[in-house]
UniProtKB/TrEMBL annotation:
Topology relative to the membrane: Multi-pass membrane protein
SUPFAM superfamilies from the UniProt entry: Aquaporin-like (SSF81338)
GO cellular component, one term: plasma membrane
Annotated keywords: Membrane, Transmembrane, Transmembrane helix, Transport
Name of the protein in question: MIP family glycerol uptake facilitator protein GlpF
Gene Ontology molecular function terms on file: glycerol channel activity
Residue ranges that the Swiss-Prot or TrEMBL entry lists as coiled coil: none
Organismal lineage: Bacteria, Bacillati, Actinomycetota, Actinomycetes, Bifidobacteriales
TM spans (from-to): 12-29, 41-60, 103-124, 152-171, 183-203, 230-255
Family named by the database record: Belongs to the MIP/aquaporin (TC 1.A.8) family.
Record's subcellular location: Membrane
Main localization of the protein described in the UniProt heading: membrane
């Protein structure tokens, strides 16, 4: 059985790597002195998808959640299936039991990992932040921003996107190909293409909340507030979507 420090390390490193790459991708296409400035939306979607791909591989020992919504979905699945584990492996064969302590370790590691990853991404692109003057653009390098601000409908978008992601995670486990990280990278890519311009496609409370905290704390010229009035949307929406993403396929007996 994995120790608490091993569980924390796996989720922390995986999430930190994911967020560092994603932050660098966002900075590269958003900040005006970058050679990739104003790259198209496919650049952002593919960058996010591949960031998740790398992060999931880094955090493979714990199932590569990197996302409190995925951890919540595993907990909900455990309520219906007491034999289910956090990493999907059978007990006795590397499975991590669903306990309050283990869940707390996973979620703490994800939030802290996302914060550290954002800080690393910022340091790697620091000079470009110094020279760019649009505070709204600087904020969107870190966290999500809706195309049209309508909190209710933005929550709906986050619910739908996260429900699709979680449904795929639980149903794909029974496929003979076991595509794993590559498959989830493609799912993230298409969801960012679909909803990134609508609600920001956070799909992950840690990905957005920790990024706002990092933005608020990092030294940066021409900085605005972190838009905390919107911060609850990419927190609540993914949590609701995670529950739906387990319950819906579970009704049809499709959860592996």
């Amino acid at each position: 059985m994995m120790s608490g420090i091993e569980m924390f390390g796996s989720e922390f490193l995986g999430t930190a790597v994911m967020m560092a790459i994603a932050c660098m991708v966002s900075a590269s296409r958003s900040l005006s002195k970058s050679a990739a400035f104003r790259s198209d939306w496919i650049n952002a979607a593919l960058g996010w998808g591949l960031a998740v791909y790398v992060g999931v591989y880094v955090g493979w020992r714990t199932g590569g959640h990197l996302n409190p919504s995925i951890t919540l979905a595993r907990v909900v699945n455990h309520w219906f299936n007491p034999g289910a584990t956090l990493n999907g492996m059978p007990m006795g064969k590397g499975g991590i039991p669903v306990t309050a302590t283990n869940v707390g370790i996973f979620i703490l590691a994800q939030f802290l990992g996302a914060f550290v990853g954002c800080c690393i991404g910022y340091l790697a692109t620091r000079k470009h932040f110094d020279l760019h003057t649009d505070p709204d653009v600087k904020l969107t390098v870190f966290c999500t921003k809706p195309g049209i601000r309508s909190n209710f409908w933005n929550v709906v978008s986050e619910i739908v996107g996260t429900a699709v992601l979680v449904t795929w995670v639980f149903v794909n486990g029974g496929t003979p190909t076991q595509v794993g990280p590559l498959g989830v990278a493609l799912v993230i890519t298409v969801l960012v293409l679909a909803l990134g311009g609508i609600s920001g496609a956070a799909l992950n409370p840690a990905r957005d909340f920790s990024a706002r905290v990092a933005y608020a704390l990092l030294p940066m010229a021409d900085k605005r507030d972190a838009d905390w009035g919107y911060a609850w949307v990419p927190f609540v929406g993914p949590c609701i979507g995670a529950v739906i993403g387990v319950v819906l396929p579970g009704i049809f007996g499709l959860v592996s």
